Amino acid sequence: MRERSRYNWSMNRLSIEERTRILSALVEGNSIRSVCRMLGVAKRTVTRLLVEVGTACYEYQDRVMRDLSCRLVQCDEIWSYVGCKEKRVTPAKTEKGPCGDAWVWVAIDAETKLVPCWLVGKRDPGCATEFIQDLASRLKHRVQLTTDGLKMYLSAVEDSFGSDIDYAMLVKVYGNDPTEQKRYSPAICTGCKRENKIGNPDARYISTSYIERQNLTMRMSMRRFTRLTNGFSKKIENHEASVALHFMHYNFVRIHQSLRVTPAMAAGVSSRLWSMEDIAALPNSEAMKAAA
Prior knowledge:
Elements: H1 8-13, H2 16-27, H3 32-39, H4 43-64, E1 72-78, E2 81-82, H5 91-96, E3 100-101, E4 103-109, E5 118-121, H6 125-138, E6 144-147, H7 152-161, E7 166-175, E8 188-198, H8 209-221, H9 236-252, H10 263-266, H11 276-280, H12 286-291
Parallel strand pairs: 1-6, 6-7
Antiparallel strand pairs: 1-4, 2-3, 4-5, 7-8
Helix pairs in contact: 4-9, 6-7
């Protein structure tokens, strides 16, 4: 992530009300160009504001998401891309900056719905280990963890937690419809297998339902994650900032319907309900000064 101080000029030129309107439009799934048309601001202004506030959101959450009392954690990864899809990556494009697949590894607490950490990277063993190690560093005590059947998770969990975890995989079995070709439809899930890997996980809580629902929330809340979109991220900095802003809004501002409070309040990370004005002012707020 880039240093937020490099983008202070955008914050100084926009009022808090203007910043709030721009950020509110972005977290509700609008593209940068649609925000420009709706609010009459320049694309460069919106982009720089996104990166500056997104960087502050990342730094703040990285600081406060510590010693968490989560008990039931689910992890998954969601596909996206930057610049172009992986099959269209060329040496000339990579010289301009990172491009191609940009997977987002995400963890969620099944009870409080808090997202304690995420990682934007490749779908490889290195990123899997980095992500799980980051998750382990934020937890206060032993947890039950569920992931899908991606084999990279097994070595990553062993390296990060050792035997101090109850870990299970939920492996989905997919079939094909031989009668019809469905290019944009997912394969049919014919069943699931629960596989205990480490410790003694409770079979009642071996599930990935909440993290899969979070994947849908991400696709609905960030225009660049929409499938078959032309609103994809052109730069990795914009992509990372958008993800950080999304989770700041999700964790601290958006009241969860089943909890009646925000995930951060349910998890004891925050004692109050945040507003979009708080997020807009975050780069220059006392909270960020304390984090420095």
